[in-house]
Write a structure and sequence with these properties.
Strand order of the largest sheet: 2-3-5-6-8-7
Low-confidence stretches: 1-17, 136-143
Oligomer: single chain
Shape: globular
Helix content: 40-55%
Number of helices: 11
Distance between the termini: 49 Å
Mean pLDDT: 86
Largest sheet: 6 strands, antiparallel
C-alpha cells in the first residue's frame, strides 16, 4: 500500500463508530431522557454546542446539531448528536433526539435498541435535506466515491410519544403537540393543512423550491401563494378554541389549486410532489 493510501485508510479508520452494547428500548429511553433533561432549556443546548440546522419540519421539528459529537462518532443513548425541538405556543419544546454514525463503504449503523432499518442517510445540502424524500429510511448515498463517508441518522422520540413507533423518523402527532391539542385521527389533507398553518419557518416554500428549481418569476409566484395560504390557515386556527379539521383540509387543497393556476407549466410536477407530502 502506498503512503498516500495508507494515510487515507488511517484517516477513515479514525471515524469508525465507537458503540456500546445494545440496550432494551426502555433502558435506552431512560438513559436518553436522563442525559438530555437539561436541554429542555434551549439556551443550555446552545451553550453545550448545539446549533440549529435547516427549517422546522412539520413531522420532525427543528434539528439542533452538535458537530463535535457528530465527528466524535460515538454511539450512546446518553450522547445524542442532534436534539429535536418543536415550537409550542411560541416557545421551543424538546420533543426528541437523534444519533449519527459516520460510515465507510460496506459498514452498517451500530447495534442499538432500534432496528437497523430505522437508520437513514443524510448526504445533501441543507436545502436538499429539507426535502421529504431525503428522509426515507435507508436512503442510499449519491456520492460516487466508494470510500466517501456517509452520515446515517437515527431519530428517537424520547420526549413526546410517536404513534408510529419510538424510532420512526416522522411523528404525525407533532402538529397536534405544537397546537396544544390532544392528537386525533384526521385526513392527510387536514394534517397537512394544520402543518401549513403552523409553518413559520418556510418549510413548504423551501420544499417547493428544492423540488421544482423554479425560475425567479416562478419562485416569486409560488412564495406569494404559499405565504397567502399559510396566513389564511394561521388565521383559521387563531379564530377557534377547538380543532376544526375541515378548514385546514380545504386550505391545503386550495393551496395546490392556486399553485397550478400560477404555474400551469409545472402542474404535473406539482401533483407528483403533493402526493409525496
Amino acid at each position: 500500500m502506498s503512503r498516500g493510501r495508507r494515510w487515507k485508510a488511517l484517516a477513515l479508520a479514525a471515524f469508525a463508530t465507537t458503540a456500546l452494547p445494545a440496550q432494551s428500548p426502555d433502558r435506552f429511553v431512560a438513559d436518553a431522557r436522563t442525559a438530555t433533561a437539561r436541554y429542555r432549556d434551549v439556551d443550555v443546548a446552545r451553550a453545550d454546542g448545539f446549533r440549529r440546522v435547516g427549517v422546522e419540519f412539520p413531522h420532525m421539528g427543528e434539528h439542533w446539531v452538535n458537530l463535535a459529537r457528530v465527528l466524535g462518532n460515538r454511539f450512546s443513548a446518553a450522547e445524542p448528536s442532534i436534539l429535536t425541538y418543536a415550537t409550542v405556543r411560541g416557545r421551543r419544546q424538546l420533543v426528541g433526539v437523534a444519533y449519527t454514525s459516520l460510515l465507510r463503504a460496506g459498514e452498517q449503523p451500530p447495534a442499538s435498541a432500534a432496528p437497523a432499518s430505522a437508520w437513514h442517510e443524510h448526504n445533501g445540502s441543507v436545502d436538499e435535506e429539507s426535502f421529504p424524500l431525503h428522509h426515507a429510511a435507508g436512503a442510499p448515498s449519491n456520492d460516487p466515491d466508494p470510500e466517501a463517508l456517509r452520515l446515517s441518522v437515527l431519530h428517537a422520540w424520547v420526549w413526546t410519544p410517536n404513534p408510529a413507533g419510538l424510532f420512526e423518523t416522522g411523528n404525525a402527532d407533532l402538529p397536534f403537540v405544537r397546537l396544544g391539542f390532544a392528537p386525533r385521527a384526521v385526513t392527510p389533507a387536514a394534517l397537512n393543512g394544520i402543518s401549513l398553518a403552523l409553518d413559520e419557518s418556510g418549510y413548504y416554500a423551501l420544499t417547493l423550491r428544492t423540488a421544482l428549481r423554479p425560475s425567479d418569476a416562478e419562485r416569486t409566484a409560488l412564495e406569494r401563494v404559499v405565504d397567502a395560504h399559510h396566513a389564511r390557515g394561521a388565521a383559521q386556527l387563531a379564530r377557534t378554541s377547538r380543532l376544526d379539521s375541515i378548514a385546514p383540509a380545504a386550505n391545503w387543497e386550495a393551496l395546490w389549486t392556486a399553485l397550478e393556476r400560477e404555474l400551469p407549466g409545472r402542474a404535473a410536477e406539482l401533483r407528483r410532489l403533493k402526493r409525496k407530502l
